[in-house]
Amino acid sequence: MEKQSREVIILGAGLAGLTLAYQLKKQGINALILESRNRIGGRIHTIEQDGATLELGATWFADKHVNLLSLLDELGIDKFDQAYGKIGVYELAHGEKQLFELPQQPEATYRVKGGTSAIIESLASKLDKDQIALNQKVELVSFDGDAFQISTNNNSFKSSFLVSTLPPNLTVSQIQFKPALPDYLIELAQKTHTWMGESIKVGFFSPTPFWMEKGIGTVYSQRGPITELYDHSNENGFALKGFIHDGFVTLPKDERERAVRQQLSNLFGEENIAKGTYTDTAWKEEKDTYANYPQFVVPHQNNGNSQLRKGIFNDRMLLAGSETAPSFPGYMDGAVEAAISTSKKIIDLLSTEKVLL
After folding, report:
1. pLDDT tens-digit profile of 330-339?
2. What is the distance between the alpha carbons of residues 281 and 176, in angstroms, rounded to a whole number?
3. Domain ranges (residues) in the chain
4. Of 118, 120, 127, 91, which is closest to residue 8 (Cα–Cα)?
5. Tag placement on the chain: N or C end, fewer CB within 10 Å?
6. pTM for the whole structure
7. Class of domain 45-112+198-285
8. Residues 243-283: pLDDT tens digits?
9. 187 contacts: CB under 8 Å, gap ≥ 6
10. Is CATH 1.20.1070.10 what the domain over 1-44+116-192+289-357 is classified as, yes or no?
């Protein structure tokens, strides 16, 4: 196919990539986003059933997340309070249930009205249709000193600037660079935690809010497989959403479902659980998000490290994923902050030199 050329190419159509493209477009720069999946959103993934929405990816935020809140305000997207209920359930390791009165939350926690994917859809609507190319898994990036040659599984592209919004470890693990990336960056990226990479998020759609009828909105468990569970209803439908122990990633999805249904039946009664719909996402299985680390990495390790924000290849390449942000790295707010700061760097660079493809 004919090689496509753009001044700026962005890897990844998640929150960071789409926000970056949106910020650049406001300055008259029509960047091209290459996305390996057949959908946009990255680690934001909302599914819907009978009016209820379930977040199998990024979900909650708070008043301290000012970058995200500013973007929501600019896009005209509303938020609403997460409901925790009046009563919590604590499940002991041997299965005994203890009810307790939930204390007042130290800070308000919010969800996006209409689902977190509303942010993704709104950002995409601000771009031209030809600014997002799906099913483009980047395999090779070559830099000749002036421009990047980018080869995907089914196409080739050329750009003056390249921005990867992928998790740092994924960038260095799945893409071949010629010349090679700096040794310090490869080593650092391999030791940088991929936010949500080990999480298994579980959802349960229900025709009735049986837990709310008892005032229950939160469950903690020592027993598992669910470790945390929260009311995830909205004004149109009812759902529960939570996390299951990451060790269950070794089981097929149908076995995870059986284990979760058994636990929920023990907590709420089989008659309630039999009527619901189960779903989950094990992010470690998402090869467009997660790559194995060469050594053990702890949660948050190197997230926000300033070395991740250094320019590469004569400042023509930048990393701008959520893990690179100085504030709240790994969170949605970090993705927005990284995108905004990177857009300013690119605009400054373009204003100081004339780049020709």
Report:
1. 999 999 999 9
2. 28
3. 1-44+116-192+289-357, 45-112+198-285
4. 127
5. N
6. 0.96
7. alpha beta
8. 999 999 999 999 999 999 999 999 999 999 999 999 999 99
9. none
10. no
